[in-house]
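Researcher: Watch the backbone:
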Amino acid sequence: MTSPRLPLPTREGVGPSCVGLSHGPWPTIAEFLIERFPAITREAWLERIAAGDVIDEHHVPVTAQRRYESPLRVYYYRTLDAEVPIPFEEQVLFQDDQLVVVDKPPFLPVTPTGKYLQQSLLVRLKRKLKIDDLVPLHRIDRSTSGLVLFSVRPETRGAYQAMFPERRIAKHYEAVVPWHEGVSSVPEVYRSRLVDDEHFMRVKEEAGEPNSETRIVVQEARDGHALLQLSPVTGRKHQLRVHCMALGMPIVNDPIYPTLLPENTDDFDKPLQLLAKSVAFLDPITGGLRNFMSPRSLSLAPR
């Protein structure tokens, strides 16, 4: 099945954004956009419209005087005035007609979000590989480094995406945590119930039926730190980070747990010591075994 052609092409790795026009009092589409997105100035919207960078779902350009109509979808390019460059490079480890496997550096989000657009893994890859249909099959946190899988072909994407909720993919992480002398052991399996915290950035544990599960192996322990292998059975937000904190060993350099650091305080010299190390699965299209491993490694003497 061929995906429908969007009214605007991908530009500099960024595909068009879309907004739906619902019933409302605006005299023109331009006035709606100006009110709907106040972070973008009136002058900027009028410049985009004049440049032909605002198009409706029928491929008809929006003009500054075009009357408001609904329902209608309008496409435009999201831009940011300035982005802080992330001084680390991703590495493409594998590419074929179906998949791209990438080793992501820390601090780089997988997809555009908030103040990150060009400085996102997806946009970087679209620019580098010239694949407009590229879509991540899963996400890892911006702070986390390691493997991310991308789908190349829309017609087979669903088969790969289904592996994750159906738990047909084995994922292993590594983490460096504080280790105190006299600690005898950690549980081989840790389960808890994770729910949203009062702060949107965090999750927390609460009493009740567990909805998250992590398998834990201590690979090495010395000099006040331990290297753990963490294998998530479930894929809850921040699951590994919260489980380690709950066990009294928060992951080294975590900017959220146990203490949420202020925004815009990234320290590029102190990356989170959490690495998506390996993935393995039976390919749903070819039936063959796929096994990928990050070339990164974590040190027991983290910065």
The radius of gyration is 22 Å. The longest helix spans residues 42-50. The longest strand covers residues 212-222.
